[in-house]
């Protein structure tokens, strides 16, 4: 495969933002300041602060930056000192922006619960980005770090205080940060001390660049990034080519809500997203690698080979001991494993098929997620499908009126991940890479027969040129087959009865779904019956022969990070051939006649299941 060295740098507004010698003085209308939306519910919910139990006059909060502005990423040591009586109820919050409310709102637990997060988290009037009890420092309760604040005439210590040092991972949120010390635990918080606002050195800096494909020719790529500056920025690539960005944003007024209770996105969890920039790079060549930060174009439609990675339900997890909203414990291991996979140079693209960040209305969590995937998405095409935690909310037009998106209703998802879809809030599309035609649907939008999406799927599947792309892979979020039970059920029989016949009629070879947090593979299945079974090849690998097509093979790959789902020990279905409850992803290599699929354990790199689908000459 040919290699092309390409320098890709962000210039213009980016260079201005990065220049250390001149202060950043953007025009007032181009910069965003984040204020949380304030609702009547918050006013009713607010709890007056009582008298704190330790009003020590010696309390101090010091941050390891030494007073310097915050960098784009840092692991900060934050020291709380001057505590006279260490208590298990003492905790430290990191809030952004610094003007966020730190009053107690005891009813705000419902904001976490409605999105499915049942963890014990702080009940402030605005969501704190991170929180840690001071007992994270194992020496705190025993006052291992002490200082004498006042001495007697004899020289002995009269007033001794204690300290704790905690580590916080901070990334550039564009808005300033403040550390606030509380007593009373998460449920009954009372402010003891504030650090004062800590600004970022470069709030306008472009960050979290990620690539996506725009068509099947692989001669153009879209680069999307986040910045605090609305002014157009440029991408320089190739031999002097440039592309100018278009900046968009959204506000809390764009979020969904209901009258009785404001959604997290509308109120409690709102954080200003800054500006999302997108630039289209044209005149590229398929299957080329790009040095520097941004990356590699996928193979053009009809070319001989394609290697891609697919997973669902990733989210993010803190890189420090903090608690945050909706932690997905396997997300970091999967991200690291895919990054290692990419170092081989054998990954052309990535498909993340729903439940992307699990921000679910806590908007600052999108920044953490984008930071997590930057090493992956900045190098190859990062294609996505929408899931329930991006789209669903009551009254929003979703098929499922659950509060799973926390009021986001797909707006942040479509802003951060512009896919080659037909229009706003129509996040279905198809794209061809190498020998594969991908059909990416939304299980959250209407899919019943004669609906707009159904008609599109039927038209798209009817138009596939099998001489150019012999493989058809169908992708969505909610599965048609899963052995795992849940409340509500993971499989909607109405969805299956409406859409499954399309897959059979148009001879779809392979189907990938997420939503259920494990890995499961089926036989060639239709209407719950095995229409074809794999046979072992010479290496003992299960092989489906689609030269005599029987039905699609389904694979659930929702093991990308969220807490794993198990499998029943009895009553298993005959169509279920492989079941693995481990974090991981699927890697796929497709030629014109052979497709190899392997499920990789992200913690061990072991291949725990593999199968082939073959057709034509071998």
Automatic annotation (TrEMBL):
<feature type="domain" description="Purple acid phosphatase C-terminal">
    <location>
        <begin position="551"/>
        <end position="610"/>
    </location>
</feature>
<dbReference type="InterPro" id="IPR008963">
    <property type="entry name" value="Purple_acid_Pase-like_N"/>
</dbReference>
<feature type="domain" description="Purple acid phosphatase Fn3-like">
    <location>
        <begin position="71"/>
        <end position="202"/>
    </location>
</feature>
<dbReference type="Pfam" id="PF16656">
    <property type="entry name" value="Pur_ac_phosph_N"/>
</dbReference>
<keyword id="KW-0378">Hydrolase</keyword>
<dbReference type="InterPro" id="IPR040974">
    <property type="entry name" value="Fn3_PAP"/>
</dbReference>
<comment type="subunit">
    <text>Homodimer.</text>
</comment>
<comment type="similarity">
    <text>Belongs to the metallophosphoesterase superfamily. Purple acid phosphatase family.</text>
</comment>
<keyword id="KW-0732">Signal</keyword>
<dbReference type="Pfam" id="PF17808">
    <property type="entry name" value="fn3_PAP"/>
</dbReference>
<dbReference type="Pfam" id="PF00149">
    <property type="entry name" value="Metallophos"/>
</dbReference>
<protein>
    <recommendedName>
        <fullName>Purple acid phosphatase</fullName>
        <ecNumber>3.1.3.2</ecNumber>
    </recommendedName>
</protein>
<keyword id="KW-0325">Glycoprotein</keyword>
<dbReference type="InterPro" id="IPR029052">
    <property type="entry name" value="Metallo-depent_PP-like"/>
</dbReference>
<dbReference type="InterPro" id="IPR041792">
    <property type="entry name" value="MPP_PAP"/>
</dbReference>
<dbReference type="GO" id="GO:0046872">
    <property type="term" value="F:metal ion binding"/>
</dbReference>
<dbReference type="InterPro" id="IPR025733">
    <property type="entry name" value="PAPs_C"/>
</dbReference>
<feature type="signal peptide">
    <location>
        <begin position="1"/>
        <end position="20"/>
    </location>
</feature>
<keyword id="KW-0964">Secreted</keyword>
<feature type="domain" description="Calcineurin-like phosphoesterase">
    <location>
        <begin position="307"/>
        <end position="519"/>
    </location>
</feature>
<dbReference type="GO" id="GO:0003993">
    <property type="term" value="F:acid phosphatase activity"/>
</dbReference>
<dbReference type="InterPro" id="IPR015914">
    <property type="entry name" value="PAPs_N"/>
</dbReference>
<feature type="domain" description="Purple acid phosphatase N-terminal">
    <location>
        <begin position="206"/>
        <end position="297"/>
    </location>
</feature>
<dbReference type="Pfam" id="PF14008">
    <property type="entry name" value="Metallophos_C"/>
</dbReference>
<dbReference type="InterPro" id="IPR004843">
    <property type="entry name" value="Calcineurin-like_PHP"/>
</dbReference>
<dbReference type="GO" id="GO:0005576">
    <property type="term" value="C:extracellular region"/>
</dbReference>
């Amino acid at each position: 495969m040919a290699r092309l060295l390409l320098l890709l740098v962000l210039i213009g507004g980016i260079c201005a933002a990065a220049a250390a010698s001149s202060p950043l003085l953007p025009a007032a209308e181009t910069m965003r300041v984040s204020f949380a939306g304030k609702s009547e519910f918050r006013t009713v919910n607010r709890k007056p602060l009582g008298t704190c139990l330790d009003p020590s006059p010696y309390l101090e909060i010091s941050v390891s930056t030494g007073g310097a502005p915050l960098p784009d990423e840092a692991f900060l040591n934050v020291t709380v000192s001057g505590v006279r009586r260490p208590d298990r109820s003492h905790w430290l919050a990191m809030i952004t922006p610094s003007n966020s409310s730190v009053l107690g709102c005891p009813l705000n637990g419902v904001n976490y619960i409605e999105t499915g997060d049942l963890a014990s988290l702080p009940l402030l009037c605005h969501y704190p980005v991170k929180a840690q009890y001071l007992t994270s420092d194992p020496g705190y309760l025993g006052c291992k770090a002490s200082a004498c604040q006042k001495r007697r005439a004899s020289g002995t210590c009269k007033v001794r205080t204690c300290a704790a040092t905690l580590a916080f991972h901070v990334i550039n949120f564009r808005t300033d940060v403040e550390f606030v010390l509380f007593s009373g635990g998460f449920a009954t918080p009372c402010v003891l001390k504030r650090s004062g606002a800590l600004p970022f050195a470069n709030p306008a800096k472009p960050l979290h660049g990620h690539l996506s494909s725009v068509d099947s020719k692989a001669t153009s790529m879209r680069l999307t990034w986040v910045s605090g500056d609305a002014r157009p920025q440029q991408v320089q690539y190739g031999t002097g080519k440039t592309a100018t960005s278009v900046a968009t944003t959204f506000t809390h007024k764009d979020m969904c809500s209901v009258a009785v209770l404001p959604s997290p996105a509308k109120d409690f969890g709102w954080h200003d997203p800054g500006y999302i920039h997108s630039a289209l790079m044209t005149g590229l060549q398929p299957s080329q690698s790009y040095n520097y930060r941004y990356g590699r174009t996928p193979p053009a439609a009809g070319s001989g080979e394609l290697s891609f990675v697919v997973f669902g339900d990733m989210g993010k997890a803190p890189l420090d001991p903090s608690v945050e909203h909706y932690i997905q414990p396997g997300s970091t291991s999967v991200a690291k494993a895919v990054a290692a996979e990419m170092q081989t140079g054998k990954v052309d693209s990535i498909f993340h098929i729903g439940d992307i960040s699990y921000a679910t209305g806590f908007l600052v969590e999108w920044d953490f997620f984008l930071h997590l995937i930057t090493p992956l998405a900045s190098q190859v095409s990062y294609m996505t499908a929408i899931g329930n935690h991006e789209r669903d909310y009551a009254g929003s037009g979703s098929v499922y009126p659950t509060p799973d998106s926390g009021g986001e209703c797909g707006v942040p998802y479509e802003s951060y991940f512009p896919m080659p879809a037909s229009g706003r809030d129509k996040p279905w599309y198809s794209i061809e890479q190498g020998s594969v035609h991908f059909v990416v649907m939304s299980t959250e939008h209407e899919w019943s027969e004669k609906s707009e999406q159904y008609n599109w799927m039927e038209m798209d599947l009817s138009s596939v040129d099998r001489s150019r792309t012999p493989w058809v892979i169908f992708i969505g979020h909610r599965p048609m087959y899963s052995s795992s039970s849940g409340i509500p059920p993971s499989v909607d029989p109405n969805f299956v009865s409406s859409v499954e016949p399309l897959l059979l009629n148009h001879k779809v070879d392979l189907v990938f779904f997420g939503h259920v947090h494990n890995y499961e593979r089926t036989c060639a299945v239709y209407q719950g019956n095995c229409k074809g079974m794999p046979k072992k090849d010479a290496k003992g690998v299960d092989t489906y022969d689609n030269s005599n097509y029987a039905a699609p093979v389904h694979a659930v790959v929702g093991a990308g990070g969220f807490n794993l789902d198990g499998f029943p020990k009895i009553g298993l279905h005959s169509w279920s051939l492989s079941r693995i409850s481990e974090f991981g992803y699927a890697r796929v290599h497709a030629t014109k006649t052979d497709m190899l699929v392997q499920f990789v354990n992200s913690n061990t790199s072991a291949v725990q299941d593999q199968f082939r689908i073959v057709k034509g000459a071998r």
